[in-house]
Design brief:
Blueprint (H helix, E strand, L loop, with lengths): L1 H7 L8 E12 L7 E12 L4 E7 L5 E5 L3 E5 L2 E5 L3 E6 L2 E6 L10 E6 L1
Antiparallel strand pairs: 1-2, 1-9, 2-3, 3-4, 5-6, 6-7, 7-8
């Protein structure tokens, strides 16, 4: 699961960048985000000029993460999204949400990603 979190959310370059601090946990699907196993806090840096999103932080083992994410669509720094094997992180009017894929890598294990407020 650590490798999944690491691969899911890795972020963009600096320029006209806006940062989003996001804490997420891997939780059991049927627990309504109450039974969670691992957490990670990442900064998503959105560069609207370059149309990139970069994930910055540490994975659950303490290894550094600093990678530009693939499969992202950036309209501007307040409206963007990135797809992954487990779901889609989406920001609309600066509000962050995560849509889990039921048939994704975590869904097949009975797990989902939950955002922690």
């Amino acid at each position: 699961m650590k490798a999944i979190i690491f691969a899911l959310f890795l972020m963009p370059s600096i320029g006209l960048a806006k940062d989003y601090q996001v804490k997420m946990s891997i939780c059991d699907t049927q627990s309504n985000c109450k039974k969670c196993h691992e957490s990670v806090e990442l900064t998503y840096r959105v560069d609207s000029k370059k149309k990139t999103v970069t994930a910055i932080g540490k994975d659950t083992t303490g290894n550094n993460i600093n990678e530009v994410l693939d499969k992202c669509s950036v309209q501007d720094s307040s409206n963007w999204s990135c797809d992954s094997a487990s779901g889609k992180i989406e920001v609309t009017k600066e509000q962050v949400s995560f849509l889990n894929r039921k048939d994704g890598s975590l869904g097949n294990l009975g797990k989902q990603i939950c955002l922690v407020k």
